[in-house]
Amino acid sequence: MDSIFNNLFNNSLEAFKLRREKFARQIIIKWKNIGDLIEIEYSDNGIGLSNVFEDPNEIFEPFITTKKDKTGR
Known about the structure:
Helix content: 10-25%
Low-confidence stretches: none
Distance between the termini: 29 Å
Mean pLDDT: 88
Oligomer: single chain
Largest sheet: 2 strands, antiparallel
Shape: globular
Strand order of the largest sheet: 1-2
């Protein structure tokens, strides 16, 4: 769970940096019990998912990223 939330927060912070205008940054985390399970909903008001992804579920695949290193790769 630590690595999941760490990744979500890092992605939100990166998305906030990419918005050009001034805005109130917002991260919302909601949760609820569903029987023996906990459902967690996470959202932010960053720039949204990159157009690179045709299917939004691609973001859950291992090693998928839109981030580039210092050389642009």
